[in-house]
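re: ur question from earlier - yeah i can do the single chain one, its not a big deal. heres the input i used so u can compare w yours
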Amino acid sequence: MKTTAFQRSCILIALANAICMGVGQAYAQQIEETLVRFYDRKSEGWFWYAPEPEDEEEEPPKPPPKPQAAPTQSPPAKPASVPPAVEKGPAPFSAAWVRENLPKYKDAAWDNPTVENVRAFMYLQRFAIDRSEQFSNATEMAVLGDPYLDEISRRPAATFASQKLDVEAGKEKSALIDSIAQRAGIFFFFKDDEYSNLQASIVKMLEAQGFTIVPISVTGRPLKDNIFPNFKTDSGHAKTLNIVNFPATFLVSPSGKFEPIGQGALSLPEMKHRIIIAAKRNGWVSEEEYKKTKPIYTTDNNIAEKLDPSIFGKDLETIQQKTNGKSNFVEPSKLMEYIRTRLNTK
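and the output i got, formated as tokens:
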């Protein structure tokens, strides 16, 4: 497009003015481009009627974006509450179930004695009685002929046999008493009362069996019947031995060790038995000597000795962990297999 002389004049004037006003070259070039575009738009009508373009207003600078707050984290959702597991009770008609519920049925029948309530209790009671009878019958079959379970293997039920065992045990006991009499003496503490006088006659029998008796009066006075005229007066031994009841009898070793037999009146058989126990407790008699005084066939079938937990307990724990590690219950078949192995039985 060609420009007229008038248009060029206008452009030159605008440039001169821009230079005179000190506007930079860049700004002058912008004005020239603006005017050229303005006057070239003749198709829009006469140029002096068209409004000149207004300077575009610069948009105010946008304020810097506000810092966004860190998103708040909502608290973690609580896990859905799981209802507590209902504890499963014992199986119906098991021993635990009957033990737990039989009293309840009885109470229900007592509180409300209808025919149905009473009948329910009586049926359950009848069940318990019949089950007990079944248990008793099975017990007889389990015990019969088993040397470790059958009591007649230890002490016979027949009178003639049990009496013979009693006589033999009595002889062994008397022999052991004679042996202890050679190794220990008896201190007899008494008062001048009727009970001490009666006990003195029993103690005198032990003197006839070989025991050395040392009678000691805690009151300083003799016995009523003067059974032990050569008594000694207590000089503090009763207090040292913590004697609170009289008469009192002690087994004494040659080294001066005291073992109490009893504080109070004792019969002769009871006194002999206690003397043997006191001697065994101190190791004055052997285990074998002590067993012979028992009125039984043998003590070789003592299960507690043959299944000593300190020796075989670990083996049983291993079996228990293999079969049922969650409890200390060993299945009956596994337990019997273990016991038979240890006892060498079929």
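The chain has twelve helices and five strands. not sure if urs matches, ping me
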